[in-house]
Amino acid sequence: MRISLEQQNETQSAIDAHGIIGDMRSAALVNDLGSIDFFCWPEFDSSHL
Asked: Is 11 inside any structural domain?
């Protein structure tokens, strides 16, 4: 099944379809399509971007 770009933007991936990338100071939550869904920078306790 193919998902159009519009549908990809409207649907939210399940949490188990995400990974985390970080450097011990900040982190990004990345979905299985490669989009960054959550990013706190420059520190973990900073507001999300």
From this structure: yes
Residue with tokens 């995400």: 18
What residue type is 27 in one-letter code?
A: A
Amino acid identity, residue 34? G
Rounded CA gap, 42 and 47, in Å? 9
Number of domains the chain is built from: 1
Confidence (pTM): 0.63
Is position 45 within any domain? no
pLDDT by residue (tens digit) across 36-47?
998 988 888 887
Return the H-helix or E-strand segment holding 7.
helix 5-10
